[in-house]
Write a structure and sequence with these properties.
549 residues; alpha/beta; TIM Barrel; Jelly Rolls; six-stranded antiparallel β-sheet; 24% helix; 20% strand; disordered N terminus
Length: 549
């Protein structure tokens, strides 16, 4: 059954379907990586339906379904361009496969977007198409880009030149939303989807190439974008009862502002229904320190709901997919900030989904269920794989680590913890609390003073692990010394913000390289009950990768 304004295959209006349910758990499916890239063409109708079937019976209430690349799409558009329609010869087999699967399905009468919409509703789930709003023009040989982009290079942010050399080079070929032609092309695709498909709303992915105007035209640009978002919102509301507009944006209001997106004003004017703040939107890494309280505060009284992204990759030098303990720590920190729901972004990296994936999903909506369960807090750290987001990658954001440490100097970091350890200790449920830090370029002759929440950690109370050299590593090699404490009650973390400090009191005189505080981790382990053993999960095995003990 279609929403108001939608038409069936016969071209006749069908009965409106009101959507009153407001989902708490949204799941992003990009329609490519676990989908048209994976299946040999032609895909069966059932294989298209797998996008829904794989999530049926879980707490996921809404699937946020990607419309292809954004420049081109993977459904039967009449106003946009199908992925790869321009090419006769291909240099990328996987991109050709995406085109084949979409084209063959459409020709067989199984428009992928309609198949997924219908299947979602059949299984009691909501479906929101997601349009990537900003990508560079790309190369003409790529099947992902469009004729519109290739033939309208004058509509790019960098087309007129004269920009400061510090402006990110990757942003030069992004669309400049000052031009009406840009907004018309984007709106046509959005409105067509609203009119022709039985969707439950629409998502604008605004955090993938987060610049929309020249930096010298931002004031005018913000006003243009606000009025355009209002136009889209009107189209969403007019297209069907209960539909809503979701916007995915940079992870700070300041970052949104600097990108030309006045999200605070959008909420005040009630022209967005769900705001999805996202950090590490490029590498898609988990960050349990993500603070969205400014969004929550700004949304009060507006009716807008805040759904921060929860990503599932750690991708450190020893851990790939984040284990359930990390997911719990992040989710509990988010719920504690008064959010309305979670947006699970890029979890498709775990595809094909196995039992541990579903165990993680089961707990996510329930902070109280996760409260007395193992958690693994860690701070994100910049590396050669993922540079500091402030360095032209994500506007308004930075990371605390790594931090340089000179002799006589102190490196400090803060991070939130939601566990009420005093409560669970009284119940006999706390097994142990481990604090781990890694210092690079240090030696056995260096001397430190470590403090946690202002309390000195006793020198004799820690274990050191020497990893001055590592032969191999699961992801990439990081060397140094780990310092590990099994914290006693007097040094346990507190609910809320916690502070760790490392002071270098004496430096090995023969070393000229600088020391960095690179990793800070806190692991809390619980028992199922008072005096219970810790072997309650023998079949799950250890988390992926090695972990200092």
């Amino acid at each position: 059954m279609l929403s108001a304004g939608a038409t069936g295959a016969s071209g006749q209006k069908e009965t409106p379907r009101a959507t009153k349910r407001r989902p708490r758990i949204m799941f992003y499916h990009d329609s490519r990586h676990p989908f048209v890239y994976m299946y040999e063409p032609p895909m069966l109708k059932e294989e298209f339906e797998s996008a829904v079937d794989e999530l049926a019976g879980t707490p996921v209430e809404a699937i946020m379904f990607g419309l292809g690349d954004g420049r081109t799409v993977l459904h039967d558009t009449k106003v946009g361009e199908l992925w790869g329609h321009r090419l006769k010869k291909w240099d990328m087999p996987i991109f050709r496969r995406a085109h084949q699967n979409a084209r063959m399905a459409i020709d067989a009468g199984h428009d992928p977007l309609r198949v997924v919409c219908d299947r979602a509703h059949e299984k009691g789930m909501l479906l929101y198409p997601t349009l990537i709003m900003q990508l560079g023009t790309g190369d003409a040989a790529s099947g992902r880009t469009s004729n519109f982009r290739l033939q309208n290079r004058h509509l790019e942010i960098g087309a007129r030149g004269g920009l400061d050399p510090s402006f990110p080079k990757g942003a030069l070929t992004l669309l400049d939303y000052k031009h009406p032609e840009v907004r018309r092309e984007r709106f046509a695709l959005i409105n067509e989807t609203l009119q022709r498909y039985p969707v439950d709303g629409f998502e604008l992915q605004l955090n993938y190439g987060s610049w929309y105007f020249r930096p010298d035209e931002l004031d005018e640009g913000r006003q243009i974008m606000t009025e355009w978002i209002a136009e889209i919102h009107r189209a969403v509301i007019a297209s069907g009862a209960g539909r809503e507009l979701v916007v995915r944006v940079p992870g700070s209001l300041e970052g949104c502002w600097s990108a030309g997106l006045d999200v605070r004003e959008w909420m005040r004017r009630k022209i967005v229904d769900v705001v999805v703040p996202q950090i590490f939107g490029g590498p898609e890494l988990i960050d349990m320190t993500f603070d969205v309280r400014t969004f929550v505060e700004a949304a009060k009284g507006t009716g807008a709901r805040i759904h921060p992204t929860l990503q599932s990759d750690a991708d450190s030098d020893r851990i790939g997919p984040a284990p359930i303990e990390m997911i719990r720590a992040a989710a509990c920190n988010y719920w504690a900030q008064g959010i309305d729901g979670l947006y699970l972004a890029h979890w498709f990296v775990r595809w094909p989904y196995q039992a541990p994936f579903y165990e993680i999903l089961r707990e996510l909506p329930h902070a109280d269920i996760m409260a007395p369960k193992d958690k693994f807090y860690s701070l994100p750290t910049a590396s050669y794989r993922y540079p500091n987001p402030a360095e032209g990658i994500e506007p308004g954001l930075s990371v605390q680590l790594p931090k340089a440490l000179a002799e006589g100097g102190t490196a400090a970091v803060t991070f939130p913890v939601t566990d009420d350890l005093n409560r669970w200790a009284k119940a006999g449920r706390v097994h142990e609390v481990l604090l781990r830090v890694r210092l690079t370029s240090t030696t056995e002759l260096d001397r430190y003073e470590f403090r946690f929440n202002g309390n000195v950690l006793p020198p004799e109370g820690h274990r050191r692990i020497n990893e001055t050299y590592k032969m191999t590593a699961p992801r990439y090699r990081v060397t140094g010394y780990w310092y590990i404490w099994r914290l006693d009650l007097a040094h346990w973390p507190k609910m809320g913000s916690n502070k760790f400090e490392a002071t270098l009191t004496k430096r090995d005189p023969d070393l000229t390289t600088g020391i960095t505080l690179r990793d800070v981790e806190l692991e809390i382990k619980y028992k199922m009950g008072k005096n219970f053993h810790r072997g309650q999960d023998p079949d799950l095995g250890p988390a992926q990768g090695s972990s200092p003990d």
